[in-house]
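Weekly structure sync, notes
Attendees: PL, DS, HV (note-taker this week)

Item 1: Store-operated calcium entry regulator STIMATE-like
DS walked through the input record. Source organism listed as Aphis craccivora. Sequence as pasted into the shared doc:
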Amino acid sequence: MDAIFDESDVHCKPNALVGNFGWFLQGLLATLAFLCLIIKRFCEPKYDRRPWKVWFFDTSKQGMGSLLMHSANLVLAGQIQGDPCTWYMIHFLMDSSLGLLLIFFGIRFSQHLARVKNWESFNFGEYGKPESVRIWFIQCGLYLSLLCCVKVVITLLISLDIWRVITKFIMSPFTDPRTELTIVMLIIPLFINALMFWVTDDILMHRSRHRVGLLRRIKIQYHKVQQSGRLDDSAISDDEELLNIDETSTILRSSGVQGF
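Item 1 (cont.): predicted structure, written out as tokens:
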């Protein structure tokens, strides 16, 4: 048996996270998480689906950020005395909750600066026409810097003594080190990462003004019924016509103002 899994121990040892089995689970998790982002692109409406280059710019920032946070969690979990799987799980759950909230406000603040200071490069999801690698690099650096600040805040919170009490029972139901490692590195992160990647991608991508909400559709449909006196099938499903109406009204309301 692998030296990092001792049958006499009920929890994973310090090197378990970076052992052969741990790396296998991490690779599998990264593959499934990346697949989730590909599926998300195809779930976008055809009229507003991002080109592959823009999609890559958006998702690559998140991919590099996830690698940064994951690496930091591996290092921090191994430095703290006790079960590294438990500490990794605590860091991961904090990143997925408080961390995601801080990232959201950080990105919204950068977009506020982009609007007030006219710093177009800070407007996440917009890379110019044609798309500029320089703008992507600026946004990527800004995003990674934001993640570093978030990680510092979370690390300071986890250094409180209360977490040492929580570690005594958080993984206590699991008595096999391999089972514990699988749950910590694959099962729980898979579902949480799928949700977190989906939400973060929505935060990082450009919010197109051509998206038609449900209330907008109902309002347009109501005017159509008033004008024609009847509701035919083409009026229900013709997204392209709805977009043209929405775009016309948007142009009349504001001239050249970009939404976030």
